[in-house]
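Hypothesis: this fold can be encoded by more than one sequence.
Test: take the structure tokens below, design a sequence, compare later.
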């Protein structure tokens, strides 16, 4: 049986009097590649913050089969936020330095770097296809390349679960497919469980195993194959009027 990594039961959350999440239940199991989809403002980032323990919600949350209140192994959870690639070209850090900074989560801020730190930086960059950029300044890279470097920074702590908030923002369309191919390799070859948040209805599908469609409530949760069988009109309706049928 697959191990449960994230279990949410009847999660509700308000900002003041604004109900943003209403009775959300969801399960992510070992090996899943879940896309959390929904229009802008549907509560996706809020739900991520709840899973990451940054916001407290009503309902039950378990991480790796343990109630979140007593969960300690935060190094098992890698997170790349939406804004992590908002660098300007003058930012004075190399790719190597950025990736290596991810090790502090594992070894602690003032502890010595492990002897194999160099190899681990290289391996993490190789896993996202960026090893040739080791000595480049992070600010000189494209949005998509920076996003890969930040994923490598999360990978170096050897998480079991990788959480990505809108990772293809700033990646141009021709590179989105190869970005998803890279994530598929992390999921299948490196056995990493992935939660990817996106408002993009055209999310490439064959790499993803499960979909949760959120709009304050969970409107759909199931395997990608089943999601693909839903009538397109249904999905557009869930999105509201902002998305045109193609
Ligand atoms: N710190 C906050 N204080 C008050 N309201 C907030 C706060 N953060 C988000 N909201 C509101 O909560 C709702 C859900 O926001 P959230 O960022 O979770 O949505 P989202 O699905 O991630 O959106 P997007 O796709 O645009 O990133 C929105 O109406 C938003 O305005």
């Amino acid at each position: 049986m697959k191990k449960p990594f994230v279990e949410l039961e009847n999660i509700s959350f308000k900002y003041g009097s604004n109900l943003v999440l209403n009775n959300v239940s969801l399960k992510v199991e070992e090996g899943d590649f879940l896309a959390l989809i929904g229009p802008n403002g549907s509560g996706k980032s809020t739900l991520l913050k709840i899973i990451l323990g940054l916001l407290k919600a009503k309902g039950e949350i378990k991480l790796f089969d343990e109630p979140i209140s007593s969960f300690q192994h935060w190094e098992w959870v890698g997170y790349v936020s939406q804004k992590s690639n908002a660098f300007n070209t003058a930012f004075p850090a190399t790719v190597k330095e950025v990736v290596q900074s991810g090790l502090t989560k594992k070894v602690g801020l003032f502890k010595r770097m492990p002897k194999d730190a160099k190899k681990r930086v290289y391996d993490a960059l190789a896993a996202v296809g960026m090893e040739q950029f080791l000595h480049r300044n992070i600010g000189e890279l494209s949005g998509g390349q920076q996003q890969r470097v930040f994923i490598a920074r999360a990978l170096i702590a050897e998480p079991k679960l990788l959480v990505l908030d809108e990772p293809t923002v700033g990646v141009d369309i021709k590179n989105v497919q190869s970005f998803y191919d890279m994530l598929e390799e992390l999921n299948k070859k490196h056995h990493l469980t992935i939660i990817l948040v996106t408002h993009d209805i055209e999310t490439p599908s064959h790499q993803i195993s499960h979909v949760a469609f959120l709009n304050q409530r969970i409107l759909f949760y199931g395997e990608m194959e089943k999601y693909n069988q839903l009538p397109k009109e249904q999905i557009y309706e869930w999105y509201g009027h902002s998305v045109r049928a193609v």
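The CA atoms of residues 86 and 143 lie 8 Å apart. Residues 242-246 have pLDDT under 50 and may be disordered.
Hypothesis status: open.
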